[in-house]
Amino acid sequence: MLKKSHDVKIRQQKLFVGLFLVSIFFSFINLFSFLNINIYPEYFLALMVLTVSSNLISISITKVFLMGVIVDILIGSILGQYTIAFLLLYGLQVFSQKYFLMPTRPQAILLKFLSICLGIIIVTIISQNFNPTFHTNGSLLNYLIIEIAITFVILIIFQIFYERTYGT
């Protein structure tokens, strides 16, 4: 395994802190209000998927747990909602690393997409962010598809920042 230089670690930590602050800021702003759509992309899930999949910062199960609690407190959501999602995403990454030592680019993209899907489904179920009309006309599935797509685009944007900063 290659060791990272101290300068690279500092740049990655600065990028993580910057993306974390951007995630906090945009989590409270509805960017799609001009379309009368009430969708808030899951910026923190995108950041966690990027962090876990690309090893942005050194991470352990304790750090994942603490990041989840901090995000739960900052957002003001149900305590443990993001913590459970982050721990499951971390577990999925550890599981996949056992079976894919050197994943191909399509495998890595598929794993990131599945991680986003799993995270959004978990957060949606735990938060019970359901509307009574979801059960009648199938709009829950439409809502989940739109939220997954938008969150995956956010992940791609975060990935571009990561690649420009670190150059992977």
Output the keywords.
168 residues, 0% strand
**Percentage of residues in DSSP E strands:** under 5%
Q: How many distinct helices? A: 7
Structural class: mainly alpha
Number of domains: 1
Order of helices and strands: HHHHHHH
Could you give the topology of this structure?
Elements lengths: L5 H22 L15 H12 L6 H15 L5 H19 L5 H23 L6 H4 L1 H28 L2
Give the gist of this structure.
This protein has 168 residues and is an all-alpha fold. The protein is built from seven helices and no strands.
Describe this structure in words.
With 168 residues, this protein is mostly helical. Helices cover 73% and strands 0% of the residues. The protein has helices spanning 6-27, 43-54, 61-75, 81-99, 105-127, 134-137, 139-166.
